Amino acid sequence: MITFAHRGARSELPENTLPAFRRALELGASGLESDAWVSSDGEVVLVHDEVVRRGLRRWRVARALAADLATIDIPRLLDLYEELGTDFELSLDVKDPRAASPIVELARSHGAAERLWICSPSVRLLRGLRPEAPDVKLVHSRSRHEIGPLERHAAGLSSLRIDAMNLHHSEWSAGLVVLFHRFSLRAFAWDAQETRHLRAMLRYGVDAVYCDDVARMVAVVSEWGATADSA
């Protein structure tokens, strides 16, 4: 199972910052998760919201220079790779569609394309990206009630060569994981915060989880693996 640190080790440090990402890896996360926008000078930057507030000041990411955003601890994707390397899975939620192609180019230039997971609620964006990014993993991230008949949706994603379906942990069941696996799609679960949530995902056979508490996530998954090995 991939253990994605949701916005880094945000339970310990400010989210989506290089220290938070570094700490997540130190704690044993096998993957990092963040959100991608494009600054006014065309850099891919990692921050959750389109508008960032620091004290009384508001910054609109798309209208700000990457260098200015760096002064309030918003890193570029380039900074992440250059400071932390590439020995981890990276899941990026594409908030600005313009970020998709530059993300792929940056990952390729660092030899990290095969460990990149691009997430989007838009099947259209993922479908358009597939031909230019055959070496990158694509993830459809949507609520279960928004995707219609589940088997038809799984079949459609499979036909588009999308790699994974990302649902809230409460929407997965063992049977649903089996259904998506039958179409060669991986099952990702977000917001799996509590020990009981993580253990349920492990029982269901989910392929990746996203969690804010990295130490808890790593401990639960490690304990599960040790138990399975001794059985």
Summarize this entry quickly:
This protein is an alpha/beta fold and 231 residues long.
**CA distance, first residue to last residue:** 18 Å
**What kind of sheet is the major sheet?**
8 strands, parallel, barrel
Question: CATH homologous superfamily?
Answer: Phosphatidylinositol (PI) phosphodiesterase
Fraction of helical residues: 25-40%
Q: Tell me the overall shape.
A: globular
Calculate Rg over CA atoms: 17 Å
Number of strands: 11
Order of helices and strands: EHEEEEHHEHEHEHEHEHEH
Q: Secondary-structure blueprint of this entry?
A:
Layout (H helix, E strand, L loop, with lengths): L1 E5 L11 H9 L4 E8 L5 E3 L4 E4 L2 E4 L5 H5 L6 H8 L4 E6 L5 H10 L6 E5 L2 H7 L7 E5 L8 H10 L4 E5 L5 H9 L3 E5 L4 H10 L3 E4 L2 H17 L1
Parallel strand pairs: 1-2, 1-11, 2-6, 6-7, 7-8, 8-9, 9-10, 10-11
Antiparallel strand pairs: 2-3, 4-5
Q: Please, could you describe this protein's structure?
A:
There is one protein chain. This protein is α/β, with parallel strands linked by helices and 231 residues long. The chain has a single domain (2-36, 85-230), classed as TIM Barrel (Alpha-Beta Barrel), CATH 3.20.20. Helices cover 37% and strands 23% of the residues. The strands form 2 sheets. The chain has an 8-stranded parallel barrel, surrounded by 5 helices. A two-stranded antiparallel ribbon has the order 4-5. The chain is globular. It starts with a strand and ends with a helix. The mean pLDDT is 96.
